[in-house]
Design goal:
- With 511 residues, the chain is mainly α.
- The protein has a single domain, classed as MFS general substrate transporter like domains (Growth Hormone, Chain: A).
- Helix content is 73%, strand content 0%.
- It is built from 23 helices and no strands.
- α7 runs antiparallel to α8, α7 packs across α20 and α18 packs antiparallel against α19.
- The chain starts with 20 loop residues before the first helix and ends in a 20-residue tail after the last helix.
């Protein structure tokens, strides 16, 4: 079967105990790390559409948007490399920070990475709110990027390691849920601060990033470390005690032995960055690169970063553009909840595939509608009914992403790697994600200017490629204990040839 299938044998998952309140609470607290990423995604697009902000920091864009409106191609009125650098600089910093975070996460534990990320993000939010020139803005964004890099590296790994196999998908998606809540909160705040007539609303929008940063930093102090992380740092008794606590049962010997075996194997790997390049880790390396790559090439950040700018470009007024961004934010949150309740029931593959088909259809329809109304020169108008149809299609696109590539883009890479390369694999996942987020954020307004409505067809083409890739090359991992993931790869029609027998020999008594 395309993609391969696997069913865990031996009943090992039955030893995971019940779903304890302790696990639920710790995972909710840890998932708050996604708030800082989501808030930043949502806040930057709204701020860059505020006239007071543009007038102070990007006067040329402000002039182009207002004075030359009748002469300028509508697709190009926001085109500014400096303006996109304000948004994209965060992601290049997150890329670099993710590699440092990999070592911190492995040596000091997952919660230490979360705490450090929250503190640095807090410093960046303060600097952005107080900015008086472009340099302060960019430095603040770079600090925010370091915080995002540490949070995105540590939180998904923490959630995957804490959760029992039968609930790992739902609890890990808590990270994406927090991202969507952060985006929605940012859109609501932007809508409110844009009406502050004194001209400092943008400062409030940027400064309120301190709230999720404080929540993440304080929350990390109260989190326990995962049994995997405790074992990785040499404390077997404490790790076993923690595993009993999070599983709510004393019957954890089999699972604990799996963790010990994985830790012993990990200790033999002196250079995880070198070892992840070995053929035996080829499936994990490819997935940790291609899944975040494809996630960004869905085009979602065109909507999330620049929703107000995009809506204004296609004819919405200022208030309507910001309110439309709020509506898409609500859809994003609601449909992420759908993923939480379906990912462990129906599996990862079916959500990936359905989401890809729906995104493709919506992007083609949006491109055709905008092309018909605005043509290649951007000189056109859109009626109220047509604007409503456009908003509906964008909401349907956001919905399909929110229950597929959004949460699964973080879940799947965090659960497929054995312990010895897990930190390196997640660092690669974050780095690739941040690199292509940076590229999309930096070039989107220029692409909109040159590709015009064809931009939607460009991303639709990539959606076809990535959906095909999932169908043939991504195996199903639902309900598989995280330390037994190698069995999935061994059973796959294509990847099985890369997995040596000794990668799963420790569990032959289970099959």
């Amino acid at each position: 079967m395309a993609g391969g299938g696997f069913v865990a044998k031996g009943g090992r998952d039955d030893n995971n105990g019940g779903i304890t309140a302790f696990v639920i609470i710790t995972c909710i607290v840890a998932a708050m790390g996604g708030l800082i990423f989501g808030y930043d995604i949502g806040i930057s697009g709204g701020v860059t559409s505020m006239e007071q902000f543009l007038r102070k920091f990007f006067p040329s864009v402000y002039t182009k948007m207002n004075d030359d409106k009748g002469l300028e191609n509508e697709y190009c009125k926001f085109d500014s490399e400096l303006l996109t650098l304000f948004t994209s600089s965060l992601y290049i910093a997150a890329l670099v920070a993710s590699f440092c975070a990999s070592s911190v996460t492995r040596i000091f534990g997952r919660k230490m990475s979360m705490c450090f990320g929250g503190l640095v993000f807090l410093a960046g939010s303060i600097l952005n709110a107080a900015a008086v020139n472009i340099a302060m803005l960019i430095i603040g964004r770079l600090l925010l990027g370091v915080g995002v890099g540490f949070a995105n590296q540590s939180v998904p790994v923490y959630l995957s390691e804490m959760a029992p196999a039968k609930l790992r998908g739902a609890l890990n998606i808590g990270f994406q849920m927090a991202i969507t809540i952060g985006i929605l909160a940012a859109n609501l705040i932007n809508y409110g601060t844009s009406h502050i007539k004194a001209g400092w609303g943008w400062r409030l929008s940027l400064g309120l990033a301190a709230v999720p940063a404080i929540m993440m930093t304080v929350g990390s102090f109260f989190l326990p470390d995962t049994p995997n992380s405790i074992l990785e740092r040499g404390n077997s008794d404490k790790a076993k005690q923690m595993l009993r606590k999070i599983r709510g049962t004393d019957n954890i010997d089999d699972e604990f032995q799996d963790l010990v075996d994985a830790t012993e194997a990990a200790k033999k790997v002196a250079h995880p960055w070198k070892n992840i390049l070995q053929p035996r880790y080829r499936p994990q390396l490819v997935i940790c690169i291609l899944v975040p790559f494809f996630q960004q090439l869905t085009g979602i950040n065109v909507i999330m970063f620049y929703a107000p700018v995009l809506f204004k470009t296609i004819g919405f007024g200022d208030d309507a553009a910001l309110m439309s961004a709020v509506i898409t934010g609500v859809v994003n949150v609601v449909c992420t909840v759908v993923s939480i309740f379906t990912v462990d029931k129906f599996g990862r593959r079916i959500l990936f595939l359905e989401g890809g088909i729906q995104m493709f259809l919506c992007q083609i329809a949006i491109g055709i509608l905008i092309g018909v109304k605005f043509g290649v020169n951007g000189q056109g108008s859109i009626s109220g009914a047509e604007a409503d149809v456009t908003l509906f299609l964008i909401c349907m696109y956001v919905a399909s992403f929110a229950w597929s590539w959004g949460p699964l883009g973080w879940l799947v890479p965090s659960e497929i790697c054995p312990l010895e390369i897990r930190s390196a694999g997640q660092a690669i996942n974050v780095a690739v994600n941040m690199f292509f987020t940076f590229i999309i954020a930096q070039v989107f307004l220029t692409m909109l200017c040159h590709l015009k409505f064809g931009l939607f067809f460009f991303f639709a083409g990539f959606v076809v490629i990535m959906t095909t890739f999932v169908f043939f090359f991504l195996p199903e991992t639902k309900n598989v204990p995280i330390e037994e993931i190698n069995r999935v790869w061994k059973a796959h029609w294509f990847w099985g040839k890369y997995i040596p027998d000794d990668a799963i020999i420790a569990h032959t008594d289970d099959v």
